[in-house]
Each structure stands twice: as structure tokens, then as C-alpha cells.
Design goal:
Number of domains: 3
Helix content: 40-55%
Number of helices: 13
Order of helices and strands: EEHEHEHEHHHHEHEEHHEHEHEH
CATH class of the largest domain: Alpha Beta
Number of strands: 11
Distance between the termini: 40 Å
Largest sheet: 6 strands, mixed
CATH superfamily of the largest domain: P-loop containing nucleotide triphosphate hydrolases
Structural class: alpha/beta
Shape: globular
Length: 375
């Protein structure tokens, strides 16, 4: 098991160890990048990373994810460093979580659980809160233990227990009932959203999409003069924000959507379909990319994969490479330009070439013939 050379923090916040595995077909540098991103997620959640461990393996261990010997070694390290939890970069099975909880006396989470926790903390609107709770329950359903009897307080479970039914079966039934209720609530919210979109009529709609922390909210502010909250944290934006952009005689609706991330839990994508419907129905998608990130190409592929899953692969897309003010090597811009000749290169923070984006949007507004650069 190798120890990654990341900065380790010391504070009174909740502390954790991060664990990742490198399989033979995987790039070790990419796995390290994923763990750096996981550390950023931990920071967003308000916790501190005490140490990060990586093990190279031929295959994942079905019992502990990492090898049994390394699992015991990690358990000793958890006790030595007195951390509050251990977080794995990949999704753990219910059996693996149980095995780790038996091996250690700390919380055991995986990346999916951490992302869902962050979304729950950042959800402000009724729609976002409903979506996140639905995703959490779908994730937790196969992982239920007898500790979940508190759910009866949420859904009125008193008197619902049948003869001979175990508490775990009761909890599962309560969760399924809650999932069905939340699904109906999202359907109602979606109908309200459809009504609102119909009122928009023939207004040209543009959606900002991209990997989380790519600078979408900063770009929305630069284009519209708004003051949407911006923070150097993953998922600083969760709810869709829409602003009007006036270009000559045309009015455009510009929306900032939730950012995507690698290994985004499937249940979360499914739950957020109503939010992403704003992007699905847009006339133009502005795919914002952080060019200063060495793994920006991988991030672009994550976004494209989600586009495909959401049946958005044939949408009109304008690639926008952001944060060029952070690029010291012109070869990086040159390579991106060769792969994406129609892309725009900007700095939303420094307001560099923002007008060029407005010109492109205006051209499409005046001439709605679809074009598909660099899909």
C-alpha cells in the first residue's frame, strides 16, 4: 500500500483517511487525481484529510475492497491516527461496508455516500431537497441495517408492522413507501417546471454545463452582471439559476446547472433529471471546461457520458475553455485548439473574451439553424 504525497491537515474538524486502489488496466496518475478530487470533496463536506492510501492490486477484494492483510494494516492506522472515518474512492458493496464496520470502530463511507451527503447539505430549494433525499434512499435501501427504525418517524410507520415481520423488513417497506412518495412529488414539481417553460414561449435558452468547479457560475455573472454565489469548492452551485441576458433586440435566458463529477452516483443522475431538463430543452449548451486542470480531457469525457445518458448527445454545443489566465504553457492552449477548433478560450474571472461568447450567442439567436461544433 503506497502513501500519496498530499498535504495532510491537522485541525479540530472531523478527520478521515482516504483509500484508493489501482488495477492493472488503470493509470496510477489518474487514480491519484481522483483521490485529490475526493480530498476536495471532503473539504467541501467540512472534514479534514489525515492521510491518503493507495494500493496496487490485480483485482478488488470482494470482502474488503483492498487485501485482507492491508485491511488489518489500515485498521491499525485508523486507531493510531484516531480518525473519525475512512472513505473509499469507489463504491463499496453492502457486504464490504459491514466487514469494515466490524473491523473498525469508525464510520465507513464511499465516494457516492460522500457526494450524496454534500448534495444534502447544499440543497436549498424544495426540488433539490426532494431529489437528494430520493437519491439517498435509493442508495441506502440495499445497505439497510436494523439501525434504521428511526425512518418510521418520517413516514408515519406506527402500526404498520405486520405479524412476524422483522424490523429490517419494516424499515425496507417504509423506505420503499418514502421513495414512491418522493417520486410523485418530483413529478408534480416537473409539471410546474413545464408550465413555467411554456410561459417562456419562444425565448432563446442557453444552459451552462460542465464539470464541477469549472467556473460556470463565474461565467454567468460575467455575462449577465449578476451576483450568483461563487466559491472555490466542488458543488458550490446545486440548484439551477436562470438570468436574463439582453443582446441587442434579443432576450436570452441563461441558466447555470449543477456541475458533474467523476463517478457521480447513478441514483443522483436519475433524481436530477428534472433539474437537467433545463439543459435538455436549451437551444444551446455552453460546455465550460477548466483548461488549467491537467485532467480536463477526462472531465470533458465525463460530461459527454452524462450527455449520452440523458439523451443530450446531439444538442448544439459550444465548448468554452475557461481559466486561460492560469495557463503558463502555450502548448496546452495549442493542443486544445487543435482538438476543438471551434472552441472559445476565456477567463470568466478576469473577463477575458467574454464579448466573444455574446457574439456567438447572438448569431445563433438571429439565425436558429443548428450547428454542432466539436461534439
Amino acid at each position: 500500500m503506497g502513501r500519496a504525497n498530499f498535504h495532510i491537515t491537522q485541525s479540530s474538524a472531523e478527520t478521515c483517511l482516504l483509500v484508493g486502489a489501482v488495477l492493472p488496466h488503470q493509470d496510477k496518475a489518474a487514480i491519484r487525481s481522483n483521490l485529490e478530487e475526493l480530498a476536495s470533496l471532503v473539504f467541501t463536506a467540512g472534514a479534514e484529510v489525515r492521510d491518503i492510501m493507495i494500493q496496487e492490486r490485480d483485482r478488488l477484494n470482494p470482502a474488503y475492497f483492498i487485501g485482507r492483510g492491508k485491511a488489518r494494516e489500515l485498521a491499525e492506522l485508523i486507531a493510531e491516527k484516531e480518525v473519525d472515518m475512512v472513505i473509499f474512492d469507489d463504491e463499496l458493496s453492502p457486504a464490504q461496508i459491514r466487514n469494515w464496520e466490524n473491523l473498525t470502530a469508525v464510520k465507513v463511507l464511499d465516494r457516492s455516500a460522500l457526494i450524496l451527503d454534500i448534495f444534502a447539505a447544499h440543497a436549498k430549494t424544495r426540488e433539490a431537497k426532494t431529489q437528494v433525499e430520493l437519491a439517498q434512499l435509493n442508495y441506502l435501501l440495499p445497505r439497510l441495517t436494523r439501525h434504521w427504525s428511526h425512518l418510521s418517524r418520517q413516514v408515519g410507520g406506527i402500526g404498520t408492522k405486520g405479524p412476524g415481520e422483522t424490523q429490517l423488513e419494516t424499515d425496507r417497506r417504509l423506505v420503499n413507501r418514502r421513495i414512491a412518495y418522493l417520486g410523485k412529488e418530483l413529478e408534480k414539481i416537473e409539471q410546474q417546471r413545464l408550465t413555467q417553460r411554456k410561459r417562456a414561449g419562444g425565448v432563446f435558452q442557453v444552459s451552462l454545463v460542465g464539470y464541477t468547479n469549472a467556473g460556470k457560475s463565474t461565467l454567468l455573472n460575467a455575462l449577465t452582471g449578476s451576483a450568483v454565489h461563487v466559491a472555490d469548492k466542488l458543488f458550490a452551485t446545486l440548484d439551477t439559476t436562470t438570468r436574463r441576458l439582453r443582446l441587442q433586440e434579443s432576450t436570452i435566458l441563461l441558466s447555470d446547472t449543477v456541475g458533474f463529477i467523476n463517478k457521480l452516483p447513478h441514483h443522483l443522475i436519475a433524481s436530477f433529471k428534472s433539474t437537467l431538463a433545463q439543459a435538455m430543452e436549451a437551444d444551446l449548451l455552453l460546455h465550460v471546461v477548466d483548461l488549467s486542470d491537467p485532467f480536463y480531457a477526462d472531465h470533458m469525457q465525463v460530461v459527454k457520458n452524462i450527455f449520452a445518458e440523458m439523451k443530450m448527445a446531439d444538442k448544439t454545443v459550444q465548448v468554452i475553455f475557461n481559466k486561460v489566465d492560469r495557463i503558463s504553457d502555450p502548448a496546452i492552449i495549442g493542443q486544445a485548439r487543435r482538438h476543438y477548433p471551434s472552441a472559445l478560450f476565456i477567463s470568466a474571472k478576469k473577463r477575458i473574451r467574454i464579448e466573444r461568447i455574446k457574439i456567438n450567442i447572438l448569431k445563433l439567436t438571429l439565425n436558429r439553424n443548428k450547428y454542432y461544433p466539436d461534439k
